[in-house]
Structure formats: C-alpha cells, structure tokens
Amino acid sequence: MLYKAPELFVSQRGEAGGYFGKPVDMWALGAVVYECLHNVPAFFGDNKDDIEIRIRTPGGHSRVSKALSTGARGCIIKLLTMEAVRRPTADEVLRWPWLRNAGRVEQEAVVA
C-alpha cells in the first residue's frame, strides 16, 4: 500500500483504466528512495484510508528534507509526480547526475 501509485486506486474503483506498468514502477521507486533517504515512509496515516488519501493528493507525501542534495530531492519529487505520463522512465533516471556521480560501492562476498 505504501508504494502504490495513485492511478491504481482509481482503477480499483472502476474509474479510468489503462496501462499501469512502468509509470507505476517508477512511482514505487520514488516511494522507496524517499523511505531509504528519510528512514520513514513517504506516505503514512492512521489507517489504509488515510494513506490512500495522502497518495491520491498532490503533494500528499511527507516533506522532502532540505538536508538532501538537490539531486536527491529532485529525484524523489519527479518520481512521485501525480501524472503518470510525466514521471521519468528508468533510462532517464539512470542518466541523472545524482546517480551517475554516486560512485561505485565495492561488494564483498559474505561467508556464512
């Protein structure tokens, strides 16, 4: 529920239908990035109805911290755009300087 795009709620109510694949995935990515960088969900409430209202309301997510870099803030805001057709694609996101300049993290094998 916390990562569900607003258009999915509309579809459940028998209103507008359509293709929801990639734009919905990008919304979920925005919610995950928000949660990773803030350590709290982007959308919260006392119950499922409260959360749905926040998700379906433009700007309903919690404030994006000003402590984040401009690139990180922009990433979250663009991914959580209400209009599905205006959300960036995965290819666009991968070209953002914020991610390209992040550097690589070396991985070590974990031996159990």
TrEMBL record:
Keywords annotated in UniProt: ATP-binding, Kinase, Nucleotide-binding, Serine/threonine-protein kinase, Transferase
Domain of life: Eukaryota
Keyword Kinase: yes
Boundaries of every Protein kinase domain copy: 1-99
UniProt GO molecular function: ATP binding; protein serine/threonine kinase activity
UniProt protein name: Protein kinase domain-containing protein
Natural source organism: Haptolina brevifila
